[in-house]
Design goal:
The chain is built from 1 helix and 26 strands. The protein is mainly β. The strands form 4 sheets. Strands 15, 16, 17, 19, 21, 22, 24 and 26 form an 8-stranded antiparallel β-sheet that branches. A hairpin with a 2-residue loop joins strand 6 and strand 7. The longest helix has 8 residues. It is elongated and about 70 Å long.
Length: about 350
């Protein structure tokens, strides 16, 4: 039934004959058009959600026609709203490169491609343009496998999908010139709640939890100064990091502007004596570090911030500082500023054996 609905819904002009009761189009440039010999849905800067769909596990297949210019196009699944879903997309301009295809979770419209990058999140694939290529996505539990252009083996295998396992809408996604889609089919699979993902302890020395402030406009709240108004930092929300040590701030905080937003993240390092420790950290996009109320470090790691090809991906190890700790409690605060692409923080301390991280 779901496959039939998809096949029917792809016919007709979305501005006149496209069934608005079945599809939710969030793209002012979307249209049905004849392209490369077949009727297709063109998305340029938005999404098309199938309202009637409710897929947890199964297979999504479609044909994709990429144009001869840089663009982004993909498939979304387990959608809970037009702003919350899992997404896998292709970059034709990166054909055969290690990030030709990419996975990212979307929380409140916030992409996180700068945070989830590398093995298990990005992969190489050949992405021909100006012809139809077949894409197949197989979803089961917290795993997804992507096959591009009738490949026998998946080019991308994700084993830790970041959003909760649940049924949700499927849809199509296009950005920056987008692509054409046709022959969309969905084959649901029997769905059983997957076994709880085993708790994995982050590497030794990782700061395992942070207390987060509310999000604020970085143009109105000075990220170079500790916040003096509002709730005490001790009462900020305590949130855990992922197994890798990454804190994806977008899980817990929505952006409040279309520009630069800031969240302050706090932890307490309790030392048995006066000592110097090394703090290695990664962040996206900007950071200001405070130790016991004093500004210690400021840096920028956003898109193109360091050189003309810098993507701004979060990497633990590119930045480090030494902390001069006093006996007892030492407050470490990070002001993390985000523009786009991923709002994140990760930090590790060495040696950690003499510390209690609160």
């Amino acid at each position: 039934m779901l496959t039939m609905l998809l096949a029917l819904a792809i016919q007709g002009d979305p501005l006149s004959g496209f069934d608005a009761n079945r599809w939710m189009i969030v793209d002012p440039a979307a249209r049905v058009m004849n392209y490369l010999g077949r009727q297709s849905l063109y998305l340029e800067r938005g999404i098309a959600l199938l309202k009637d769909s409710a897929l947890a596990d199964g297979t999504i297949e479609f044909d994709l026609a990429l144009h001869g210019h840089p663009s982004f196009a993909g498939v979304l699944f387990r959608g809970q709203s037009p702003l919350d879903y899992e997404l896998i997309y292709v970059r034709p301009q990166r054909s055969r490169q290690p990030d030709a295809v990419q996975y990212t979770p979307i929380f409140d419209g916030q992409e996180a491609w700068q945070l989830y990058y590398g093995d298990g999140y990005t992969a190489a694939a050949e992405l021909p343009v100006n012809r139809w290529l077949h894409v197949r996505l197989v979803i089961a539990g917290y795993t997804a496998r992507l096959y591009v252009d009738n490949a026998m083996k998946p080019q991308l295998v994700i084993t830790d999908l970041k959003r909760p396992w649940m049924s949700g809408q499927i849809g199509l996604w296009g950005r920056a010139g987008g692509a054409n889609f046709s022959n969309v089919t969905v084959t649901p699979a029997p769905s059983y709640p997957p076994a709880r993902v085993p708790t994995v302890t982050p590497p030794v020395g990782t700061i395992p939890r942070w207390r987060l402030s509310a999000a604020a406009d970085a143009e109105k709240t000075n990220p170079l100064a500790m916040p003096s108004a509002g709730p005490s930092p001790a009462s900020w929300e305590s949130v855990p990091v992922e197994a890798s040590g990454l804190l994806n701030i977008a899980r817990y905080r929505n952006k409040v502007t279309a520009g630069r937003d800031v969240v302050f993240a706090r932890t307490v390092l309790r030392s048995t004596r006066a000592q110097r420790v090394r703090l290695t950290f990664g962040y996206s996009d900007e950071i200001n570090l405070f130790l016991n109320g004093k500004l210690l470090f400021t840096g920028s790691s956003g898109y193109l911030a360091r050189d003309a090809s810098y993507l701004g991906t979060l990497t633990l190890g590119l930045d480090a500082v030494y902390l001069e700790l006093t006996p007892g409690a030492n407050e470490l605060v990070a002001a993390v500023v985000e523009a786009f692409g991923g709002w994140g923080l990760a930090a590790r301390i060495a040696p950690a054996s003499v510390l209690i991280i609160e």
